Amino acid sequence: MEQYIESPEQEQGLRLEDYIRILYQGRWLILASFLIVLLVTAYYTFTSPPVYEATATILVEEEPSMEGAIFNAPYINNQSTLLTNQIEILKSRSLAEKVVLALEAEPYRDSLKIFQPMSDGNYMVLRDQVSWILGHLVVAPRADTDFLSLTFSASSPYEAATICNVIAETFQGMNRDFNRSEFQDLRQFLEFQLRKKHEELRKSEEILRGFQESEKLVSIDAETTELITRLATTQANLEATTVSLEAALEQKRNLEKQLEERRSELASEVSQISSPLLTTLQQDYARRVGEKVKYEALIAEDQNIDPKEYEAELRSQSNRIQAVQQRLQEEAQRIANTSMISDPLQITQNLIESIFAIETEIKGFRAKVDVLRGILSDYESQLEQIPGQGLALARLQRQVQVDRDTYILLNQRLEETKIAEAGQKDNIRIIDPAIEPRRPISPRVRLNLLLGALMGLALGIGLAVLLEFMDDSIKNPEELERLGFGILAIIPQIIQQEPSSTKFSTNGHSETSDVDNIESRLITHFDPKSPISEAYRTLRTNIQFKKLKERDSTILVTSSAPKEGKSTTIANLAIAMAQMGTKTVIVDTDLRRPVIHSIFSLKKDKGITNYLMGKLSFDDIIKPTIIDNLYIITSGPLPPNPSELLASDAMNEFLEEAKSKFDLVLFDSPPIIAVTDAAILSTKVDGVITVVRAHQTERNAVRRAKDLLDNVNANIFGCLLNGVNADRAYGSYYYHYYHYYSYYGHDLKRRKKGKPA
């Protein structure tokens, strides 16, 4: 037995008019979806509170550095990451907290939402206020520029512009304080050292004056004076270097503090991050600094040396020291860029590079201190050889000169630091302050309604198409052909008329007449010019062609499921045959739910079951109809065992007698899937016609029905597609086939509209 397999290649694509008919069929669903989505959108649009946006424009210039300050500590900055760093600061919790505190101090605080009670009557705490600020703030860089757009959204124009400007001003002030923090620390350190040295100078001068007055000793010889001068200069240089060392250590601590804020636990470990080359370079730097100090001390001792003889050597030593400094800076930058100290913010790497540079300076200062201490020790040994009171006076004069030189040096460098601090410019400029917006950015009434309308239409169309393609029912003849059925005819949907007449019983009550119902189902007789009648005549022609080829006279009409219109089909087919002069009989073998007798307004007693049980003869069960050449054999009393009765020898005798007395015998049977009656009868008749109702019968049911008929080797004439609706029809010829007959006038067009049968 050959089993038909449906292949994807046999699927027929839908054409444009097919999609149009699908949309027309689902027009009410599309309209409902459109209205619902549009109404929901309109409700949301007109009930949502307005949102206003205010924008301020900020220019971020290259950050100022410590260059030119007292100790020339380098501050390496990468402008390409500067904007990213500033954006992160603007989004930081610390800045938001400062903004909240600034707003709280303003006289207009009560008009701002963050200081008003919420819907539950409670007020927002600081954490909630900070989250609210950050949630309504958007910071975005402008392409190919150093500008930042600071946008804040709020429920009123005044609130949006005010808070946006406060954020910009707070950010500017926070950046100013950050840039000046290092200079402030250095200035405070130098001021403390200067006050301390001033007090030491005052005391040393008083001691010297007291000694001179008491000992009546005013001056010493020139050689001792020269020694004291060199000793004082060396000691002043030593103290200045020591102060520089302490300042460098203070600056390092300040940088580590900044680094600690950005990367936890790294500041304490950064000193251990190094490399062999970096260590070697730092040692070389310290050695060269010490050699230069010794060379300068030797030059100071010998006044007879020509300056031209040692300037070239000093310049060479300075160049070598600068070369080592350059290599140290490159190595520090390389280490800062390695993965072991990577950080999301580039400024962290800049801080690490600065710390490495400061450490190099510290090692240089320490080397210089060691050398100066050695030179100072030699001078003090020479000074110890001065006898008696001259030695005491020399020591006192030396101390006064040291304190005076150190004081002058510290005072000079303090002034330099103040000038550098005052010269620090702000690298954050507010170019365009925020102004109150004229109109809200949301809700956008026109745009929302347009989008709602489009979404409603799209949703409705999508649902209509989805429901259509999820429908597994048979929709066109091509699907039946792909399932292995030949198409005998396509029957349009019959409109069952509403009751139009009544009759009265003897007790005076009205009863509905069945005339309209009978006329609707027997349309071939009552409306022979209708498209439906033409379709049944097409069915008749196709069956007659098969009879001429195979001389068939007994046909079984069945279906895969109930209520597919097989009884109405067999009645109209019989009428069409009888109208051609073919002596036709309809045998109602649906012994479970017979309906043929009701179609022709007959009683079902004295039917085929009476014959099969031997109680009546063949002629006794034949019932004539109002149509010439058409006869009916009703079901008779319903038996308890229909299948066994139809499979009996009496049924074979009935078939032989029916074929001898009629040209065509049509059998109405139950659905083939529900019971086995149709399968039994299909083996006894000459052919089988299956009825499939469009948009109702599922493909699996049709496949199952065909398999059951193939299992008993039934002769399937073909399939009848019943109850088609032009509004739901699509396919290659399905739609056009139905409308071809609509050009003919017919009586049912003048009837009132009813419901589908």
What features would you describe in this structure?
57% of the residues lie in helices and 11% in strands. With 757 residues, it is α/β, with parallel strands linked by helices. The chain has 3 domains: 61 residues, no CATH class; 239 residues, no CATH class; 252 residues, P-loop containing nucleotide triphosphate hydrolases (Rossmann fold), CATH 3.40.50.300. The strands form 4 sheets. Strands 5-15-14-9-13-10-12-11 form an 8-stranded mixed beta sheet, with helices on both faces. Strands 2-3-1-4 form a 4-stranded antiparallel beta sheet. Helix 7 runs parallel beside helix 11. The N terminus and C terminus are likely disordered.
CATH T-level fold name of the largest domain: Rossmann fold
DSSP strand (E) fraction?
5-15%
- The percent of residues in helical segments reads 55-70%
Query: pLDDT under 50 segments (min length 5)?
Result: 1-11, 64-80, 264-272, 339-345, 497-513, 741-757
What's the story with the biggest beta sheet? 8 strands, mixed
Secondary-structure arrangement, i.e. CATH architecture of the largest domain: 3-Layer(aba) Sandwich
What is the CATH level 1 assignment of the largest domain? Alpha Beta
Report the count of strand segments.
16
Number of domains: 3
Oligomer: single chain
Helix/strand-derived category reads alpha/beta
Provide mean pLDDT, rounded: 76
Cα(first) to Cα(last) distance is 37 Å
What would you give as the CATH superfamily of the largest domain? Answer: P-loop containing nucleotide triphosphate hydrolases
Number of helices, where a helix is a run of at least 4 consecutive DSSP H or I residues: 25
Give the strand line-up of the largest sheet. Answer: 5-15-14-9-13-10-12-11
Radius of gyration: 55 Å
Query: What is the overall silhouette?
Result: rod-shaped
